[in-house]
Amino acid sequence: MNKSPFNKGDILIVDDNPANLRALTTMLTGQNYRVRSANSGQLALEVARKFLPDLILLDIRMPDLDGYEVCERLKAHEQTRGIPVIFVTVLDETQDKVKAFAAGGVDYVTKPFRMKEVLARVETHLILRMMQKQLEEKNAQLEREIAERALAEKALRESEKRLRQQERLAAIGQLAGG
């Protein structure tokens, strides 16, 4: 996630309440985040799969699919599995929070939300996501290097084997001709 100072990350906000969408969008775009919004769970799934945001802010109570179901579906899909989901909801009971984390959420903010808290959590999880991506890239690079080294070692062993065979043949030729 190499973002310019003008785009610190792509965020999808999912809430069926237009006032919440406006407030979060205004706050985050003012902090140089690129924001997309969805007012339903089904639309959220479509937008997430199409644009692959860096982070999703997700309401739980929505008319079509609730936030738990949306999060579970995101986590079940290979393409969207790694996107961090922060639940932003009026639900404040422990069992709601536990259910959100069990569904795959990485954080939980209760409404009415405080802008500084939301920003701090967004920034933290975007940094964590960036670091995770960097580790994944490094791991992929190491796996490629290991595979290349294994091929080189195999080629070397085969070359050494051919050389020994040639040396044996040469030695046999000298004995026979000698």
Task: Give a quick summary of the entry.
It contains five helices and five strands, in the order E-H-E-H-E-H-E-H-E-H. The protein has 178 residues and is α/β, with parallel strands linked by helices.
Question: Which properties best describe this structure?
Answer:
178 residues, alpha/beta, elongated, 5 strands
Describe this structure in words.
This protein starts with 9 loop residues before the first strand and ends with a helix. It has a 5-stranded parallel beta sheet, sandwiched between helices. Helix content is 60%, strand content 13%. It has 178 residues and is of the alpha/beta class. The longest helix has 63 residues.
- What is the β-strand count? 5
Summarize the helix and strand pattern as letters: EHEHEHEHEH
Query: What share of the residues does DSSP label as strand, in percent?
Result: 5-15%
By DSSP (H or I, 4+ residues per run), the number of helices equals 5
Mean pLDDT: 93
Structural class: alpha/beta
What is the topology, as strand order, of the major beta sheet? 2-1-3-4-5
Shape: elongated
Round the Cα radius of gyration to an integer and report it: 27 Å
SSE topology:
Elements: E1 10-14, H1 18-29, E2 34-38, H2 41-51, E3 55-58, H3 67-76, E4 85-89, H4 94-103, E5 107-110, H5 115-177
Parallel strand pairs: 1-2, 1-3, 3-4, 4-5
Helix pairs in contact: 2-3
